[in-house]
Amino acid sequence: MLNVKEYLPFLIPLIIFQFALLFYTLYHIFTHKTYKRGSRLLWVVIVVIGMEFIGPILYFLLGKED
Question: 64 has which bridge partners?
Answer without folding.
Answer: 35
